[in-house]
Design brief:
The protein is of the alpha+beta class and about 190 residues long. It has 2 domains: about 15-30 and about 35-110, no CATH class; about 120-194, no CATH class. The protein contains 9 helices and 7 strands, in the order ββααββαβαββααααα. A 3-stranded antiparallel β-sheet has the order 4-3-5. Strands 1-2 form a two-stranded antiparallel ribbon. It has a two-stranded antiparallel ribbon with strand order 6-7. A hairpin with a 6-residue loop joins strand 3 and strand 4. The longest helix has 16 residues, at about 120-135. It is elongated, with a radius of gyration of 19 Å.
Length: about 190
C-alpha cells in the first residue's frame, strides 16, 4: 500500500476508513491513508456543501458570490471548490487540481471539471449582461436559440439569439448562468414566469 493520501496524493500517515455509503471511490488513488487536510475535508460536510477556497490547507473561506470571487481571487496557490448540488464529493477533484494560475486552470463544480480561461470568462460575462438585463429567465439562457414567444417577450435581437445558440454547449457558460444572481424583485418575477 502507498504512503500517499488517497485523496490528493500528498505524503500521508493517518489510516482512514471510508464509510460504506461513500460513492466517490473512482476519484481516489490506491491506498488506505490520508493527509491531515483531506481527513478534515472528508469528515466535515461543509467541504461538500459550501463554495469555498483554502490557501494553506487548514483555513476554510466560504464564498458568497462565486462569480465575483473568480474576478478577484487571492494569489495562488489555493484550492477552490464550487457546488450547485451541495452534496457531491467534488472537493476531492479540487485538492487534485490546485489553482496555480489566475488566468487558466481547472475549475471544479461538484464533480465536473471545467476549463477556466479568464479572457473567455470575461467575454461570457460581458455577452450575458445585456440579455440578463432584459430579465430572460435562466432556463432559456442555456437551451440555445430561444422560441419565438421568448424572443418577442424579452425583445431579443437576432445577434443575442445567435449568441445563446453558440454558447449552449459550453460548460463555462452553464456555470456562469447557474451562479449568476438577480436582485430579489427580478427573482420573484422569474419564479412567476416559470
Amino acid at each position: 500500500m502507498s504512503d500517499n493520501c488517497i485523496f490528493c496524493g500528498a505524503p500521508a500517515t493517518q489510516p482512514i476508513t471510508l464509510k460504506e455509503t461513500f460513492t466517490a471511490q473512482p476519484l481516489l488513488q490506491p491506498g488506505n491513508k490520508a493527509c491531515n487536510r483531506c481527513t478534515t475535508y472528508y469528515n466535515d460536510p461543509k467541504y461538500r456543501r459550501k463554495n469555498w477556497y483554502s490557501t494553506n490547507g487548514q483555513d476554510f473561506n466560504q464564498i458568497k458570490d462565486v462569480l465575483q470571487f473568480l474576478q478577484d481571487m487571492p494569489p495562488p496557490p489555493f484550492v477552490l471548490y464550487t457546488t450547485i448540488n451541495w452534496k457531491k464529493h467534488g472537493w476531492i477533484l479540487s485538492v487534485q487540481n490546485t489553482i496555480l494560475n489566475h488566468d487558466k486552470f481547472i475549475l471544479i463544480c461538484d464533480d465536473q471539471k471545467i476549463y477556466f480561461n479568464r479572457t473567455f470568462f470575461n467575454k461570457l460575462l460581458t455577452d450575458l449582461e445585456p440579455i440578463w438585463q432584459k430579465g430572460v429567465i435562466k432556463k432559456f439562457l442555456t437551451v440555445g436559440y430561444p422560441p419565438a414567444g421568448i424572443i418577442r417577450k424579452y425583445a431579443l435581437t437576432r445577434e443575442e439569439c445567435q449568441l445563446l445558440e453558440s454558447y449552449k454547449q459550453h460548460p463555462l457558460w452553464h456555470f456562469i448562468i447557474a451562479f449568476k444572481k438577480r436582485d430579489k424583485q427580478q427573482e420573484e418575477s422569474e419564479n412567476k414566469d416559470e
